[in-house]
Amino acid sequence: MPQYTPPLRDMQFVLHELIDVTTAFKAMPAHAEVDVDTVNAVLEEGGKFAAGVVFPLNQSGDAEGCTRDPATHAVRAPAGYKQAYAQYVEGGWASLSCDPAYGGQGLPQVVNQCFYEMLNSANQAWTMYPGLSHGAYEALHAHGTPEQQATYLPRLTSGEWTGSMCLTEPHCGTDLGLLRTKAEPLADGSYAITGNKIFISAGEHDLAANIVHLVLARLPGAPEGSKGISLFVVPKFNVNADGSLGARNGIWCGGLEHKMGIHGNATAQLVLDGAVGTLVGEPHKGLAAMFVMMNAARLGVGMQSLGLTEVAYQNAVAYAKDRIQMRALTGPKALDKPADPIIVHPDVRKMLLTARAYAEGGRALCVHTALMLDQELSHPDEAVRRASADEVALLTPIVKAFLTDNGWIATSHCLQVFGGHGYIREWGMEQYVRDARINMIYEGTNTIQSLDLLGRKVLADNGRKLKAFGRRVADLIDEEGVREDMQEFINPLADLGDKVNKLTTELGFKAMGNADEVGGAAVDYLRVVGHLVFAYFWARMARIALDQQGSGDPFYTAKLHTARFYFAKLLPETASLIRTARAGVAPLMAMDESMF
Amino acid sequence: MPQYTPPLRDMQFVLHELIDVTTAFKAMPAHAEVDVDTVNAVLEEGGKFAAGVVFPLNQSGDAEGCTRDPATHAVRAPAGYKQAYAQYVEGGWASLSCDPAYGGQGLPQVVNQCFYEMLNSANQAWTMYPGLSHGAYEALHAHGTPEQQATYLPRLTSGEWTGSMCLTEPHCGTDLGLLRTKAEPLADGSYAITGNKIFISAGEHDLAANIVHLVLARLPGAPEGSKGISLFVVPKFNVNADGSLGARNGIWCGGLEHKMGIHGNATAQLVLDGAVGTLVGEPHKGLAAMFVMMNAARLGVGMQSLGLTEVAYQNAVAYAKDRIQMRALTGPKALDKPADPIIVHPDVRKMLLTARAYAEGGRALCVHTALMLDQELSHPDEAVRRASADEVALLTPIVKAFLTDNGWIATSHCLQVFGGHGYIREWGMEQYVRDARINMIYEGTNTIQSLDLLGRKVLADNGRKLKAFGRRVADLIDEEGVREDMQEFINPLADLGDKVNKLTTELGFKAMGNADEVGGAAVDYLRVVGHLVFAYFWARMARIALDQQGSGDPFYTAKLHTARFYFAKLLPETASLIRTARAGVAPLMAMDESMF
After folding, report:
1. Which neighbouring-strand residues pair with B268?
2. How confident is the model at residue B434 (pLDDT cuts 50, 70, 90)?
3. Does residue A295 form part of some domain?
4. Domain containing A492: what range?
5. At a CB cut-off of 8 Å and minimum separation 6, what does B589 contact?
6. CB B277 within 8 A of CB B218
7. N or C: which terminal CB in chain B sees fewer CB atoms within 10 Å?
8. Residue among B416, B576, B590 minimizing CB distance to A561
9. Looking at the domain assignment, is residue B196 inside a domain?
């Protein structure tokens, strides 16, 4: 049976020693009172909830899956999910970072994101039920009418109701411009919406009294393509003027998907048959409103893989210390045993350290990004808000794609540590791999993320956002480059920074000649920039660890060793990636389609 | 629903144009009469059997899995498996490459391996039932007494009975020296065997009348560790002197594993309770006899991932041509459609070409290795037999680990081409990924393969076997290096050859100082050598394709483009691998176990 311990010590390190979030909070009136003790207390309690309530349902939920009653179209989540959700609502967890104007606790996003890392470690499928609500909340908070906000936000904040994002249709996922769902105006200003949606996570279930669906559809006479899409809020149950639930709305679950993983989450096919909804934001501007949800969701997906990486690592370490098999190549270590624990074997350690370095590096990046999000939302200085928003925009595709690719690599390595037992369900490792696989796909495939990064966030922006992050890197190099003991980290960071600059310029020139060059290099490019970002945070973490070597606390020794491992064994992936990115698009496009 | 077309054209290219197997057969009296038409006819019929009979059972077998009757311990394979197996036996497929002395058709291993590639594309789980028989057949053929051979080989050859390999126990997989199963001598010269085995593929089922278990166990007073292990043959049903089936032997299925994939194959826990068996080979020399099975099995595992890579590729191509989504970055291509087929997108092509280049390169390597195996077994010249055996020994861990790692990468890419649909069971792609995962683990994890390659096959041998392969590479460079149009292939091949030599020497020196250096570099090293082998075959394939450019046959144009893709986009992985291999073991071993 798998185990999970919330990584509170490492979270505290990242929050308070590396990023120093509470100092940053002081500049934001909304969060100025949030101190170290508050953050730590919330996360300690959150960790108890994740490990104690949600984690025990992970394997059982995977085995049981969701069930749909064909007569009523009702969907039941696995046993225990509903009760755990009730505890979640009762504990006030839904409202952690929501607006006090709607009953929220108003805590920073940083705190909520760390809480979500733990929930995802504990049970990704369960966590998607409350997780999807955040996107609906954000979209309505940003673009809803006062009436919509009054109707929906308090119940989403409390968690009494959950949300969903209804974008995908059978013939369109990435290309939402193709969507066909139609919204016909009704006399009272609302709309009758008809169409078919698929892959709707948490699209139907029995955890909450109502589901607030955010639905993309076309108005009559809307322009073709993505410029003719509008966003609607469509509740599962209509809501009366007094806030009580009215009649069942015409949005039904037509079926559930059978998936590789996240079995505990209902992936619904939704049939909208004249379902009544109201417009969110401007007509035909639905994609912009949708991106408010989507950006939040993309950070959330990165957090899912961070959570899976952490829990897979913890279990692989426990197994590697316990399982005895073969002697160390350098001679027996556990003389009292018939063989050595497999953690003596270098490649087992390499697999473990890969997961560890990806988890800890990912945590640093996520906390930093969440703090930038807090500054974007709550900082009084507009220049800071804008700079923070730019950084969130730059880092979002990296969080989504780099962390989910890393999660796939890491969970697979952790499975491998278990040998044949890793392939057997009861050990729980293969579930982490299966669950991790969806994260590379949904909320924009990782290829789409890479095009977003290279095409939109870097090249279309003339490298402005990237240069801003580059200044962080340059400042660190200036500051720490004089320290002898930091050379082993600063030199490769500086080297990679130069290479990223050169590669970016080269790709920009190539793209002017042939737009396909962006598509040919983008996936490699994103991983290169991902490593630059990780190298930056690992260098900063190494500096703190070096300064604390006198403390006698093994935490800092481990941090330093993990930093060295990262620079020695993971960062060099960039050598290949830069070559393949520079090899250009011709080797991909030369072959005629008919020859495939 | 997935589709599968046997890749007969590419097999014929590899067999007859690249390797020219029938010319090689002429030097072997046992195979001198096997001509091109015979090979092609067998594979054409074999492909029909794989695609027509076995492939339709792949998804249903995955969904149904195997069932065990707790009262009788009997195991039933999924619906249709038994009937397909009967057709396999009736068609004579079991005996393809078996010894005519026992009723076999005596065809070369090369032919059987190509047939197995197609079976594995069609249904890996089903194919393991007949597949495991080959190991039992090989062990008894090489080490059985005349009586054992007379009793078992004709029935294994015909396929009436299947085989199994009973090695692993709950506390020992890689480290067979720890095994505890005991064999007590009986008065009649046989043994009563008692113990628990796990992870026994095809260990119990209803496809055949009897199962011939090859079981590792300890004799009384046996030396500790791996030098005290003996091999026994333990039939499910005892065999009477007249060859008829006698009483049920004391070997029972105690349970079936619930696995990530290969659900259609019964992975049995076997309880031996005084099961009667006879000794195979010498007492305490069981590991050597077992390695006869194991080496055959390792090549078979590589072939499993080759098959999965091919079928995943075929389906991803079909989807990429059919699915329309977004416009090409360079402007619309399918003007008659609302969007372009996704094969216009560079990264989709990169994912497809990765699978294609790994499949075609893997096929070349597997056919070459199988021909070396035929020469090892059947060549009249002892020097050729010995040199061929050395090459098989060198290439076996590469076939096993490089092809199965590539299969994991390729099947995951092919799933990704499908976007969200790749995660849904009905499309069949996620099954290929789940099935492919076990291949990196069983018959010696890929880490074990890498230690076998670097430690045993290369360093312990003073690089002799590697140098012999190096001479093939050098000969090709000498021969083709003068051709201008071969420079793009020969130059990187020569460069990588030099780097492999340097890296090997460097690791050899390091290993003398610290044995752990082998374990720290072996996995990277295996992939580097794997790419050297692939680059060698891709350069040879490119040469043939270049020579045929005037033929107007698009097959050769596609081959040339795929070769260029391989050199531009896959081979550069070696740049990173060489760096991480050279980074040494210190970053892996520095951290104390307690800090993990």
Report:
1. B200, B256
2. very high
3. no
4. 445-583
5. A346, A349, B516, B520
6. no
7. N
8. B590
9. no
